[in-house]
């Protein structure tokens, strides 16, 4: 039985469809997967709303970050075989029981990560790793501030800064004690509850007035300006996304006065514009996972037939870590 969540009309709920046969067959450089989990990324929601930078003609099945079991391989496939447990990045089609995936963007899962956790591994950690290394050039012992630190990408940045780079201060800014505790579990040395505390004042206290070397910001909005003002000399601020819904503007003189830098990262674009760098970011994440430095946090799981509720949950901004869809369950006990 082939089951999929299908977008038949933009801005309408996804339809839950079933067929007797999936009718899928891999080309020479592809594999057929039995999908077990698909992670929800905000881009999945945006494309169904017609708000993403690239569109897909309806009807289509969204979903790009999947884990599953290889069922069939194309004749040119060398690195994978039937029965392998894998994680894959596809262009669409992930919220279904079966999908076709390119070999080049499909990797064997490390033995320490199960299929469920694997669905929160590649996008979040690949983004955070490339941002902190290639863009910010984070050095061991430097201090890092992460906003939205209990979200999927934020938690990834906290864990990488703490466990890979051994940062002196890993400051997690998030809303509420529950989210703060999750950030601490991933290695945050300090937590700022921005519902209760002033960001700049706390950073001054934590760093002794020096400011932070690197800011990892998926939030944007008014907080971005406070983050820039909290930079240390020669500090770097990374703009990763705009969860606040507001794209910030900053006075350039603030960067001049601190000899600082502001830079952006659109990780998914590297897949096309610089594939070797993109692939290396994933390979580095998988290696750090094997070393025990990375363990994805799955905040909540929904069954496939509850995908519309899952989208609403993610849009509500109350989620922590990664929210995943299970293909094998018709109801979730989480």
TrEMBL record:
Organism per entry: Mytilus galloprovincialis (Mediterranean mussel)
A cellular component annotation (GO) from this entry: mitochondrion
Alphabetical list of SUPFAM superfamilies matching this protein: GroES-like, NAD(P)-binding Rossmann-fold domains
Gene3D superfamilies: Medium-chain alcohol dehydrogenases, catalytic domain, NAD(P)-binding Rossmann-like Domain
Catalytic EC class: oxidoreductase
Domain Enoyl reductase (ER): 9-325
InterPro entries found in the cross-reference section: ADH-like_C, ADH-like_N, ER, GroES-like_sf, NAD(P)-bd_dom_sf, Zn-ADH-like_protein
Its EC number(s): 1.6.5.5
GO MF: quinone reductase (NADPH) activity
Keyword set, alphabetical order: Oxidoreductase
The protein's name: NADPH2:quinone reductase
SMART domains recorded: PKS_ER (SM00829)
A matching Pfam family: ADH_N
